[in-house]
Amino acid sequence: MKISREEVLRVAALAHLKIEDAEIDVYTAKFNGILSHIEKLNALKTDNVPPTTGGLLETATPMRDDVCQPSLPVDEALRNAPARLAGFLLVPKVVDS
Amino acid sequence: MSTPRLSITQMQADLQAKRYSSEELVKQSYSTIQAASKLGPVFLSQRQTAALADAKASDARRRDGKTLSPLDGIPVAVKDNIVMRGEPCTCASMILRNFTSPYDSDAVGRLKAAGAVIVGKTNLDEFAMGSSNENSAFGCPSNPWDVQRVPGGSSGGSAVAVGSGMVPLSLGSDTGGSVRLPASFCGTVGVKPTYGRVSRYGLVAFASSLDQIGPLSWWVEDSALLLQTLAGHDKRDSTCAAVPVPNYTANLKQNLAGKRFGVPKEYIGDGINDEVRRNFEASLKTLEKLGAKRVEVSLPHTQHAVACYYILASAEASANLSRFDGIRYTERSKTAKTLKEVYLQSRGEGFGAEVKRRIMLGTFVLSSGYYDAYYAKGQRVRTLLRRDFQDAFGNCDFIATPTAPFTAFKKNEKIDDPLQMYLSDIFTTSVNLAGLPALSVPSGFDAQGLPFGLQLIGKAFDEATLFSVAYQFEQTTALRGRLP
């Protein structure tokens, strides 16, 4: 299947990626090239084959005891934040007033 | 006239005998790095002052008879997607260009506990996505054997650092071949451990069900020593296996008589490069000379491995990279006004083209309407690939293949055709999909003097067999004296 320009823009929006107008056609072409290779998988019959979801050992997620452990101090945890205020991350307003 | 490269064991003996100190060893590492400017950006950051202090501390321990391990005082390089407290971790991306890690990865913690001296962070393809190191936002290092050529990726910097003699050991990460391919291109040993053998805590996640940290080294024994330090359970990574770690160096010389190696018939079909085929056949003869027996095996779904890998790895990557959003620890776009713009623009500006391509591919295959046809399909094909290996291992103890379909290619040769680039991984990706261990050992040189690699694939948690086969292969072929 061939992906249209509009489809590429839809996917970019879903992925929160801004793609410049000038780049969209290049992305669309390369995307389609990759997809046509990937589509060869459709020729394989997999009706009764279970999916592999994990890495290797099919074990249940291990749990730990609910005991408090020391964690990163707030100051260190936020040190790389682009904007912060009083121990919080500073972000643009989310809710319209 | 080049002097042969020393092994870790030889360095330890020299340090014990006071022929030189760890401080001198580390100083030499930095001079080698400085003198190798023709190799381009091999390191993205170096920590000379701190490393020399670590080296002095190692020397003091040695004087007090308190040497911590075979790695104590040895210079090591770490790929810049593995965090170290107080050091940058850029993942070779503009979006993390100013990020300094507040914590140590499990791997770095283990290196520190062993007394190893970390000299710096090495270059890579951005977020480990690539096969040449050309996708780095900070330039591409050069292959030490021919500076017009790529070192391979994504652990290109780590492979160059060892291949050019800057350090004897480095850490890389391997999701679809990213340790083994650059090891093959740069003439070093490279290992991808069994999935879950080494903790991923502190490895910036690309594809969580495929990623593993692995060693690169000049000598096989040194990768075994490094894996010995890295392997083991870590509660902080819930995918990390609680399987006991054997002694990887105890049986390096064990007799290979009776060991069977499988050669997958699909891997040596018509499409393979003639020089690669000749070198591979010669390597197989060497394995037979060492006493191992060749058996033909079949991995019938081989041709679907690259497609399966790109679907699953991109899907996982799209989820893992959604955290880079301009909010918590990345660059935030200066022109964004609304929250939505912060996300769209920070990510649009901060990620390179290949990363954006893979995020989009991943988002696409996970999206409503396409999920079953692509992602769910990919998961079932993964089961088929895994079963291929299980069946093959019913008839052999390890599998031998070429590591790469070609030797190092020229810079810019494949950068405009992503699909051509993806096909570099044709022999390596199915191993990650199956979760098995694999090792690349140098196996010769082509007509232009570029290195070949032999890949050995093992049963789950059987790295010990891979090390013993590779060690004896290395000793018999006696190729390690040839330097770039």
Structure description:
Chain A is built from three helices and two strands; from the N terminus they run αααββ. Chain A is about 35% helix and about 5% strand. A two-stranded antiparallel sheet of chain A has the order 1-2. Chain A is mainly α and about 100 residues long. An eleven-stranded mixed beta sheet of chain B has the order 1-3-2-4-6-5-10-11-9-7-8, with helices on both faces. The longest helix of chain B has 21 residues, at about 370-390. Chain B is built from 15 helices and eleven strands. In chain B, β10 and β11 (about 450-460) form a beta hairpin.
The helix/strand class of chain B is alpha/beta
Shape of chain A: flat
**Sheet with the most strands of chain A?**
2 strands, antiparallel
Helical amount of chain B: 25-40%
Uncertain regions spanning at least 5 consecutive residues of chain B: none
Q: How big is the Rg of chain B?
A: 21 Å
Secondary structure topology:
The complex is a heterodimer of chains A (97) and B (484).
Chain A (H helix, E strand, L loop, with lengths): L4 H10 L6 H18 L35 H4 L6 E2 L2 E2 L8
Antiparallel strand pairs in A: 1-2
Chain B lengths: L7 H9 L5 H14 L7 E4 L1 H16 L11 E5 L26 H8 L3 E6 L33 H8 L5 E6 L5 H7 L2 E4 L19 E6 L2 H11 L29 E5 L9 H16 L3 E5 L7 H16 L18 H12 L2 H14 L5 H21 L5 E5 L15 H5 L6 H6 L3 E8 L5 E8 L4 H15 L7
Parallel strand pairs in B: 2-3, 2-4, 7-8, 7-9
Antiparallel strand pairs in B: 1-3, 4-6, 5-6, 5-10, 9-11, 10-11
Helix pairs in contact in B: 2-3, 5-6, 7-15, 9-11, 9-12
